[in-house]
Design goal:
mainly alpha; 0% strand
């Protein structure tokens, strides 16, 4: 069996319910072609995604606090 197929099947088994098979195949092909450079860009993209999720969580927490404080002011 081709190493690409083995890797694709293994990844599909682990995250196939969250990522479609076409995306997995594309990622595996890019990994095989570009190796470490592909991994570097994936890590960079993941870091950006983590930072945006952190900002979103902070925003939700701030808006939740302001809603609670507004409720406290309105209710005697």
């Amino acid at each position: 069996m081709d190493p690409k197929e083995i890797l694709s099947k293994e990844i599909s088994g682990k995250v196939g319910d969250k990522i479609n098979k076409q995306t997995i195949r594309e990622k595996v092909d890019n990994f095989v072609r570009h190796g470490n450079m592909f991994l570097l860009f994936e890590v960079i993209n993941l870091r950006k995604e983590i930072e945006s999720l952190k900002e979103e969580i902070k925003h939700q927490r701030r808006s939740g606090r302001s809603q609670k404080s507004a409720q406290v002011l309105l209710i005697p």
